[in-house]
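Appendix B, Record 12. Input sequence as logged:
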Amino acid sequence: MTEIHWRNFQHLEPEERSAIEGRLRALAAERDDLLDVRIAGQSTEHHRHGAREARIAARLRGKEIVASRSAPDDRLALDAAVDAFEREVRKRREIRDARPRSAEIPPLGIVDRVLHEQGYGFILTDGGERVYFHRNAVHAPLRFEALGEGDRVALNWEAGEEGLQATTVGAPPPDAPAP
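Logged structural output:
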């Protein structure tokens, strides 16, 4: 489940907070690519747009998505920011879905290290690269909790902020070559 972190919205009513979290959790439930959501509020100097700003930021498979909106009060700014955030997440998903898929064997590797308590690990690819992976990148039939060092996996990755990051980690095809 995606974690939601709040900052500077202490005076928001519990039912308002619940409604926003419900919208974000529904968005996260559509796919398992939304990793961590941070919601922050602050005062702003924008007299034209309002005195409060709501900012929502999250990692979507290696990409940072940010939506920020200003309004006269927290609730209006938060609703507008969530609307913008939902649009941006769906837009990114459509872009990813439109990418052509190759019928080739996906890149393969071996789990080098897995830190179950922290929710991440590293894979050593057959090409010799070390790739970070988060628990949310692991897809069925694999289970993050069951992964161990030396397990053979198929993966896709991209450049992250601190190096290579797996976007998906799955079972290797039956005809995959041994390491």
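The mean pLDDT is 87.
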